[in-house]
Amino acid sequence: MKIRCPICKTLTTWEENPCRPFCSERCKLIDLGTWAADEYSIPGDNAGMHDNEEPPRETA
Fold first, then answer.
1. Which of 4, 2, 7, 12 is closest to 39 using CA atoms?
2. Residues 6 or more apart in contact with residue 49 via CB below 8 angstroms
3. In a domain, 55, yes or no
4. Total domains present in the chain
5. Does residue 48 fall inside a structural domain?
6. Are 21 and 5 in contact (CB under 8 A)?
7. DSSP string across the chain
8. Which CATH number is 32's domain given?
9. Is-contact 5 12, C-beta < 8 A?
10. What is residue 47's predicted lDDT score, i.e. its pLDDT?
């Protein structure tokens, strides 16, 4: 089965690709960096939070 890499849009073969769903280790690391930089977000409510309010911090 052929799929498109979500980062660079290159066609890649799913079954033979150890980096799936990415085409390469490079695209896999780009995606990880994007998550780490908080550039992705999951849509939805911030239930009980106001726009200027930060989530509570955990204390040890």
1. 7
2. 55
3. no
4. 1
5. no
6. yes
7. -EEE-TTT--EEESTT-TTTTSSSHHHHHHHHHHHHTT-----S--TT--TTPPPPPP--
8. 3.30.50.10
9. yes
10. 61
Decide the pairing of beta strands 11-13 and 2-4.
Answer: antiparallel
pTM reported for the whole predicted model: 0.63
What residues make up the domain containing 27?
Answer: 2-36
- Pairwise CA distance, residues 11 & 2, whole Å: 6
Let me know if residue 56 belongs to a domain: no
Is pLDDT at 49 greater than 70 in this prediction? no
Residue 32 lies in a domain: yes
pLDDT, greater one: 51 or 10:
10
Q: Give the integer Cα–Cα distance in Å for 37 and 43.
A: 17
